[in-house]
Specification:
Layout: H1 3-29, E1 38-40, E2 45-52, H2 58-72, E3 75-80, E4 95-101, H3 109-117, E5 124-130, H4 137-143, E6 151-157, H5 162-172
């Protein structure tokens, strides 16, 4: 076989593998998971924390760290993943928190769809995105899902900056 033909075949195989990997990542990002409500803390303020789990579990750990921090600050935190079957009424909560991982410039479709389906006004909303890149185009897409008339604060953190998110949340509430 000629060297240039072999190089061309290897290049095509590599491109196909990359495309398959990206497709797999996007499908995993947009996977609707089974809801499983957890409660953390017994405070006077009520917080709803909905997060899109990440493929590697980093966001799960960050969400739990944030829930424990808010509980220590006097919140009862209801923790769950986004799903069309959730029936939470945002009016019952003092703080609404939504977050997830950034993949290819966007957060998971289930989180955006769930957030866009909610109707609420006059609420304190905290958005967080976990990703490795400094730029945050995914935050703009997530912010567009929040109805007008709410106080929205947002932050993008790296996977190892859970404490930074917790400090941000404490300063925001």
């Amino acid at each position: 076989m000629r060297p240039w033909l072999l190089a061309l075949l290897l290049l095509a195989a590599g491109a196909a593998a990359l495309a398959a990997g990206l497709s797999w990542t996007v499908r995993r990002r947009d996977l609707v998971r089974r809801p499983e409500e957890r409660r953390v803390g017994f405070g006077f303020r009520k917080t709803l924390l909905i997060y899109q789990p990440s493929n590697r579990g980093r966001v799960n750990a960050i969400a739990w760290e944030l829930a424990r921090t808010l509980a220590r600050a006097g919140h009862t935190v209801t923790l769950n993943v986004p799903s069309p079957v959730l029936t939470y009424d945002p009016a019952e909560y003092d703080l609404l928190v939504f977050g997830g991982s950034a993949y290819l410039g966007s957060v998971g479709r289930p989180l955006k769809d769930y957030l866009a389906s909610l109707r609420f006004r006059g609420k304190q909303v905290l958005l967080f995105v976990v990703g490795d890149l400094e730029r945050a185009p995914e935050m703009a897409g997530l912010r567009l899902c929040v109805p007008a008339g709410n106080q929205v604060r947002s932050i993008k953190i790296r996977p190892d900056e859970g404490k930074k998110l917790c400090q941000f949340a404490q300063a925001s509430v």
